[in-house]
Amino acid sequence: MRQISVIVICKNAAATIDRALDSIFMQSVSPLEVLVVLAHSGDEILEQLNLRNNLKIIHQDGKGIGDARNKGISVAKGQYIAFLDADDEWLPDALERQISAFDLNPKAMVAIGQLVKVGDDLSINSEPSPALTPAGCLFRAEVFKCLVGFDTELAVAADHKWFMQAIESGIPFVNHKSIVLKKHIHGRNLSMLGKKQYRYEFFSLLRKR
Predict the structure, then answer these.
(1) Which CATH number goes with the domain that contains 102?
(2) 104-127 pLDDT, tens per residue?
């Protein structure tokens, strides 16, 4: 049995959380557990989450997406870890495709699928591209023992820093061509809300290389 812990990062996402969670529970490979890391929110999302009995809700004491991901990792029990942001969704066979990539490449520590971008009108407005974002990957849990977790000092570029460090450290990746993620693009995306901060953090990371 494949033991996959799914970590959902969530803040002020009442409008999209059900879509994200439904895409998890419709997977052809069922996860071992679904952990929702919930930051302080001003909407009714907690009430929505409490209507479901198949979640573990973890209240985030710190701040930032890096802290939220690390919090989920610290309590995850699965052999594999998958992330999904509360405004995105997986295709129904996403986890199955990721596991298949590992089966074909047993030395890999991270499997990377493909994503498509979806607009506010739910139309797909991009060609498939490599999903080098946590929601487009499946991680062997042990990789987070080999490599430090996500930087809690970065507001919006923690994911980029982790992938840069993983590549530089020689962590083995496997890329496959299956579309696993629908990435919803809208004005509430974290990188959209903090464009200046995102650019500052991202280019600061590049300068340090």
Answers:
(1) 3.90.550.10
(2) 999 999 999 999 999 877 677 679
